[in-house]
Design brief:
By secondary structure, the protein is an alpha+beta fold. 24% of the residues lie in helices and 27% in strands. The structure holds 2-acetamido-2-deoxy-beta-D-glucopyranose (NAG) (12 copies). One 2-acetamido-2-deoxy-beta-D-glucopyranose binds next to loops. It holds the Pfam family PK_Tyr_Ser-Thr.
Length: 797
């Protein structure tokens, strides 16, 4: 009882203290925008006079926000309420009521600045720039602007794992812009373009946190230090602060600027008179490194010290990018029609010329890549209507379809290449494609003569650097894939194991797997065991090849060298092998998250359609690589969810490829019998016809349908017999437009368009006639939405 009284007394006291210290806005207080007759505008001002809460000009009306006043009358907006709402008209008012801050027109309530359940009692604009609302009872804070940052954090404010910074469209329009910065699953603070998939290929900056402990927040203190939890690691240690003259004071802010760069600013006040803004730190020194600085089909170049977006040759601007000389967010489109290409069947290379740009790079996957001469690359793109542009690097020709993303001219970086663009013959390249010194023109209209010239001048140096590049490119690629994720020991492979296949002795593997005790799976060829090797206990998976033909060692070695030559993020990597007499074992990287079958059918893990589309694309890219990009085309022959493995980031990796030719003839027939019953094998298998890569497309189609519907291809425990076989049931639902029958689980905001797209692609892939099935390349284009999907013909049932 007594302690209760003391408690109440304490609360009351602290309430009084709070009243005396902070509160300057009481219930029923009103502010309004400047009205037409006078420039008078009311706002709530902090006691220092530096921060104001009120209406500021936005579009043809006003927005509500907090700004920092400069001595020269300038306003730096640091927070905006409901930033994406339309401008507020000038006859509105903002009133503090028990229900919070209400936006009113006359007596009509138009909106509420914050939503909270507790009744509000008073509010205050603090000197830190934090606007706080106190509860009616007691002194607790029911709402504060510091907990809802927009694009800025101020000294004393924290960016936590629950919120993010989102850049503004422009310095005058504070609505949601083009980039965001947020904590990622692995505790890194990472910046992405706003509408990207927010996966590592889209990231352009990361805090690269070094320590293992969980990170809770990024804090900016009032001395200008920008640090993670308890200054364990800092982005900025502001040592200047100590040496500041006594008659000055500083306010710091960290802002995700319009261009997507995180910068720390200091506003220096001399006796609260005037202010100087200095940029103390920025995340990236070169704006061209910011993905999404330029829009689609445009590229960034920073050759004269300012970053600038330009359309590729043959393209013209398609949006109203922000004004200003750097053309930020410029998007471009082709200035000619692709139809001519499709109708003419141009075999004589008359339709297009190739224009090239040096030292280019962009993101995304080529749909096709092969080593060849530049002339052949040039020809190959000219005659391919899907080819939007080609990138020629180190003797490798990679063709890309449009749109091109994150293009960038990177003069001093190693992983760049010669970009080739098609322009119609007779087309005059206008505008400023040449930007560097005239000695080294970037754009060369590429007739035969020009081509020879380029070949002579560049191939020599390229081939000289070739060996070096192949190695470095591969490592850059690997490090990019994993760049923004904490690496587990197993994926952090050393140099020697990366470059060549290692030969293990049987005893070594017995030791590594503790005598083959921990079986993690049983594939078509034998059991798979978990083990560890090396000083840092790298995790491996050892496959004992039991059911393989008694071929000589040479054939076995030939097969596994072909497998070892594959390098793709969606394929499980072969690390080594062991051959001792009849014992044959393969050593793979260990992929930690089980199989796709397990993920889809066994776990209850919620997998939004978007995530499943990503998995489907991962698998498609792996298969496409096997079909089109390896030195020797590899037909998987046994694609199914059981041998698609998932890593810790749920990236799908195909395993068991390249082994088909090692299987015993009778075994493969047995297998065929067995597998037919589960339906992954193409009909031509059963008829013992020639098996082509289209057999894999069939299996992929089944896997895709399983991913879409999240059920097995054959399921007996179903309400009606027509639902037993997934492919025919899916076709039935598609034909009768009853897609909802295919998804038995709950999903909010189901994206039916995407679901239908995936379904149509799946149905095309499982056609009986192999020639009706699309290539894996087209599967990817269709899934990504860049190619129209034909109506799938009906299936034989
Ligand atoms: C302008 O706003 C002020 C303060 O709200 C008010 O006193 C004044 O009457 C307004 N003038 C007009 C023309 O609305
Ligand atoms: C405020 O202005 C809008 C147009 O700007 C008008 O439609 C509305 O009726 C006005 N409301 C009041 C209460 O004057
Ligand atoms: C920011 O974090 C610090 C340390 O965790 C905490 O003391 C402080 O109250 C936080 N600031 C706000 C505004 O929540
Ligand atoms: C992001 O997507 C939304 C919704 O599709 C769109 O309104 C917005 O303009 C896009 N933003 C950018 C920067 O492309
Ligand atoms: C910044 O300060 C923290 C702790 O105060 C320290 O651990 C860290 O090493 C400093 N970083 C730099 C770059 O000086
Ligand atoms: C602030 O102090 C510096 C020297 O420490 C002096 O030169 C300057 O005039 C002072 N400014 C004001 C406004 O007093
Ligand atoms: C602001 O910077 C300018 C030039 O750097 C300098 O002349 C001026 O004194 C500074 N003003 C303040 C308030 O520090
Ligand atoms: C251009 O690149 C140089 C060197 O990387 C860098 O110092 C400079 O800040 C960049 N300019 C812009 C505007 O990003
Ligand atoms: C760009 O803006 C102008 C007027 O501001 C408008 O007429 C034009 O249609 C816009 N163009 C595009 C591509 O949005
Ligand atoms: C590239 O490197 C050269 C020489 O090392 C240097 O002169 C040039 O400024 C660099 N260019 C950029 C954009 O960094
Ligand atoms: C776009 O194409 C038209 C017709 O071919 C041509 O006149 C125009 O110059 C081209 N625009 C640019 C920017 O190249
Ligand atoms: C190309 O850009 C340079 C420098 O930005 C400029 O001086 C020149 O006039 C431009 N040429 C054309 C054709 O726009």
């Amino acid at each position: 009882m007594a302690s209760n009284c003391i408690h109440v007394l304490f609360l009351w006291l602290s309430f009084c203290v709070a009243l005396a210290d902070n509160i300057d806005i009481f219930l029923d207080e009103i502010i309004s925008p400047p009205n037409s007759s006078t420039e008078y505008s009311s706002s709530w001002v902090s006691s220092s006079g530096q921060f104001e809460f009120g209406f500021y000009h936005h579009g043809d009306g006003y927005a509500i926000g907090i700004w920092l006043k400069g001595g020269d009358g300038s306003k730096t907006v640091v927070w905006t309420a409901k930033r994406d709402d339309p401008p507020i008209s000038s006859n509105s008012t903002l009133e503090l009521t028990v229900d919070g801050l209400l936006l009113k027109q006359g007596s009509d309530v138009q909106g509420q600045v914050y939503v909270d359940t507790e009744p509000a009692g008073s509010a205050s604009m603090l000197d830190s720039g934090n606007f706080v609302i106190y509860a009616q009872e007691g002194s607790s804070i029911v709402w504060q602007s510091f907990h809802h940052p927009t694009d800025t954090i101020l000294g004393g404010q924290n960016l936590t794992i629950r919120n993010q910074l989102v850049s503004s469209i422009s310095t005058s329009d504070r609505s949601t812009g083009h980039h965001f910065l947020a904590f990622q699953r692995d505790d890194n603070l990472v910046a992405y373009p706003i509408n990207s998939s927010a996966e590592s290929p889209d990231a352009y900056w990361s805090s690269n946190n070094l320590y293992q402990q969980e990170v809770e927040q990024l804090s900016l203190d009032t001395k200008g230090n920008l640090c993670f939890d308890d200054a364990f690691q800092c982005l900025v240690n502001n040592t200047n602060h100590q040496n500041q003259p006594h008659n000055t004071s500083s306010i710091y802010r960290a802002t995700l600027d319009v261009d997507g760069n995180l910068r720390l600013y200091e506003h220096l006040f001399e006796d609260k008179e005037g202010s100087n803004i200095t940029n103390l730190w920025q995340a990236l020194s070169d704006e061209c490194q910011i993905k999404g600085f330029c829009g689609i089909n445009s590229y960034c170049s920073n050759t004269s010290g300012t970053a600038r977006c330009q359309c590729y040759p043959g393209f013209i601007p398609s949006n109203n990018h922000t004004t200003g000389s750097n053309a930020m967010f410029l998007e471009c489109k082709l200035n000619y029609s692709k139809d001519d290409c499709e109708t003419s069947g141009d075999r004589n290379f008359l339709l297009y010329n190739i224009v090239s740009l040096e030292e280019m790079q962009w993101d995304g996957y080529p749909y096709w890549a092969k080593p060849m001469s530049m002339r052949a690359c040039d020809k190959s793109c000219k005659t391919d209507c899907d080819c939007g542009a080609a990138l020629y690097t180190n003797g490798q020709c990679s063709k890309y379809s449009l749109p091109l993303r994150y293009g960038r001219k990177a003069p001093n970086e190693s992983d760049t290449g010669m970009a080739l663009f098609k322009v119609p013959s007779g087309y005059v390249i206008r505008g400023n494609t040449t930007t560097s010194s005239p000695k080294n023109p970037n754009a060369i209209v590429n007739n035969r003569k020009g081509l020879i010239l380029i070949l002579a001048s560049t191939l020599g140096s390229i081939s000289f650097l070739c060996v070096l590049f192949v190695v470095s490119i591969f490592f850059t690629y690997r490090s990019q894939v994993h760049r923004f994720t904490k690496l587990s020991a197993s994926s952090n492979l050393g140099f020697t194991e990366e470059c060549s296949l290692r030969s293990f002795s049987f005893d070594e593997l017995v030791k590594a797997t503790s005598g083959f005790t921990e079986e993690v799976g049983r594939g078509s060829f034998g059991a798979v065991y978990r083990g560890t090797i090396g000083e840092n206990n790298r995790r491996i998976a050892v496959k004992r090849m039991e059911k393989i033909a008694d071929e000589g060692e040479r054939e076995f070695r030939a097969e596994i060298t072909a497998i070892a030559r594959t390098h793709h993020r969606n394929l499980v990597k072969l690390l080594g092998f062991c051959i001792e007499g009849s014992r044959k074992l393969l050593v793979y990287e260990y992929v930690s998250n089980g199989s796709l079958a397990n993920l889809l059918f066994k776990t209850k893990k919620h997998l939004p359609l978007k995530e499943r589309l990503k998995i489907a694309l991962d698998v498609a890219r792996g298969v496409q690589y096997l079909h089109e990009e390896c030195e020797v085309c590899i037909i998987h022959c046994n694609l199914k969810p059981q041998n698609i493995l998932m890593d810790e980031l749920l990236t799908a990796k195909i395993s068991d490829f390249g082994l088909a030719r090692l299987s015993k003839p009778e075994f493969s027939r047995n297998r065929a019998d067995k597998e037919v019953t589960t339906g992954y094998l193409a009909p031509e298998w059963q008829k013992e016809l020639l098996v082509s890569i289209k057999a894999d497309v069939f299996s992929y189609g089944i896997v895709l349908l399983e991913i879409v519907c999240r059920r097995r291809n054959i399921e007996l425990d179903v309400p009606s017999s027509e639902e037993v076989l997934l492919s025919s049931w899916a076709y039935h639902c598609f034909a009768t437009e009853q897609l909802h029958n295919l998804v038995s689980y709950e999903e909010e905001d189901m994206d039916w368009k995407t679901l239908e797209r995936m379904l149509k692609v799946g149905l095309l892939c499982v056609q009986d006639d192999p020639s009706l099935r699309p290539s894996m390349r087209n599967v990817i284009l269709m899934l990504e939405g860049w190619k129209d999907i034909p109506i799938p013909p009906s299936l034989r049932t």
